[in-house]
Amino acid sequence: MVGAAATVWPLVAQMNPDAATIAAGAPIQVDLTPIAEGQDIKVFWRGKPIYISHRTKKQIEEAQKVPLSSLPDPQADSARVKEGHDQWLVVIGICTHLGCIPIAHEGNYDGFFCPCHGSQYDSSGRIRQGPAPANLAVPPYSFVSDTKIQIG
């Protein structure tokens, strides 16, 4: 029995994508269960930092109340999250100004702050202040279950 398992294991292991394949853009799955309300985590997909934010009720309400006419890159909060999952924000953590990596839960809008040149994003990842011309990008993702997403 042990000999059979030892023979089969390399065959099974080679079916898993290697690190180069994952870096090239293979989809990744992320378990949301350990992310507490109000917490952000950073994962990497295609070599890019991806922020996954478990937004609080207050953050969601603030993001939904912002008049679109006040935004440099107008986009409704509902267009940046998946329906029925308003508490989860998934964005590519690259500042749209010069490609720096912003810091989560910083700045004037309880969102993201890029210390390099002062761009500030809200809790929906929308640019609110500073030189960045656009919102943080939302990567392609979907909910596999209520507690797991697939990016890519």
From TrEMBL:
<keyword id="KW-1278">Translocase</keyword>
<keyword id="KW-0479">Metal-binding</keyword>
<keyword id="KW-1003">Cell membrane</keyword>
<keyword id="KW-0411">Iron-sulfur</keyword>
<dbReference type="InterPro" id="IPR019470">
    <property type="entry name" value="Ubiq_cytC_Rdtase_Fe-S_su_TAT"/>
</dbReference>
<dbReference type="InterPro" id="IPR036922">
    <property type="entry name" value="Rieske_2Fe-2S_sf"/>
</dbReference>
<keyword id="KW-0812">Transmembrane</keyword>
<keyword id="KW-0472">Membrane</keyword>
<keyword id="KW-0001">2Fe-2S</keyword>
<dbReference type="InterPro" id="IPR017941">
    <property type="entry name" value="Rieske_2Fe-2S"/>
</dbReference>
<dbReference type="InterPro" id="IPR014349">
    <property type="entry name" value="Rieske_Fe-S_prot"/>
</dbReference>
<dbReference type="Pfam" id="PF00355">
    <property type="entry name" value="Rieske"/>
</dbReference>
<keyword id="KW-0813">Transport</keyword>
<comment type="function">
    <text>Component of the ubiquinol-cytochrome c reductase complex (complex III or cytochrome b-c1 complex), which is a respiratory chain that generates an electrochemical potential coupled to ATP synthesis.</text>
</comment>
<comment type="subunit">
    <text>The main subunits of complex b-c1 are: cytochrome b, cytochrome c1 and the Rieske protein.</text>
</comment>
<keyword id="KW-0249">Electron transport</keyword>
<dbReference type="InterPro" id="IPR006317">
    <property type="entry name" value="Ubiquinol_cyt_c_Rdtase_Fe-S-su"/>
</dbReference>
<dbReference type="Pfam" id="PF10399">
    <property type="entry name" value="UCR_Fe-S_N"/>
</dbReference>
<keyword id="KW-0408">Iron</keyword>
<keyword id="KW-1015">Disulfide bond</keyword>
<dbReference type="GO" id="GO:0008121">
    <property type="term" value="F:quinol-cytochrome-c reductase activity"/>
</dbReference>
<dbReference type="GO" id="GO:0046872">
    <property type="term" value="F:metal ion binding"/>
</dbReference>
<feature type="domain" description="Rieske">
    <location>
        <begin position="63"/>
        <end position="150"/>
    </location>
</feature>
<dbReference type="GO" id="GO:0051537">
    <property type="term" value="F:2 iron, 2 sulfur cluster binding"/>
</dbReference>
<dbReference type="InterPro" id="IPR005805">
    <property type="entry name" value="Rieske_Fe-S_prot_C"/>
</dbReference>
<comment type="similarity">
    <text>Belongs to the Rieske iron-sulfur protein family.</text>
</comment>
<dbReference type="GO" id="GO:0005886">
    <property type="term" value="C:plasma membrane"/>
</dbReference>
<protein>
    <recommendedName>
        <fullName>Ubiquinol-cytochrome c reductase iron-sulfur subunit</fullName>
        <ecNumber>7.1.1.8</ecNumber>
    </recommendedName>
</protein>
<keyword id="KW-1133">Transmembrane helix</keyword>
